[in-house]
Fold:
Amino acid sequence: MIQVLFVCLGNICRSPMAEAVLRHKITEADLDDRIRVDSAGTGNWHVGHPPHKGTRDILKKNNVSDSGIFARQVQENDFRDQHYIVAMDAANLADLRRIAPASHQAEVSLLMDYVSGKAGAEVPDPYYTGNFQEVYEMVDAGCDALLAHIRVKEKI
Ligand code: 4NP
Structure:
């Protein structure tokens, strides 16, 4: 099973949105038995909480289920268990590199790295901006590009 982990700060806005959107695309592509998606936060303030209302609302509007998604904190073991660890912004990426074990196999990246012409771009935090629509559009494009990348790399 190929494992993908999305990471943001609180694990209630951006990364659970990406988890739900990629999970939806994987089901549409009939790849549920090949790729599993999860999400986690670098912070621990919201552990056990469901996604933020803004994330739940925009997912619902787009007919994407968020069922079973609850916040957890990223841990060192994720670098062994996960094949793709995908951060939303540069701060998440810096935090991930700080907790990474000296040696691991996971591909660690920014979501926008997979979108043509957007490498290095950050997904803005809607917890502060309030703009969940903008984030949804970036996450949707990012997940399309990430899934295409995984399918090429994993030959599925
Ligand atoms: P997220 O947004 O990283 O996209 O889940 C945030 C959610 C909560 C907090 C910060 C960012 N917080 O400070 O509680």
Observations:
- The first helix runs from residue 14 to 28.
- The mean pLDDT is 98.
- The first strand starts at residue 2 and ends at 8.
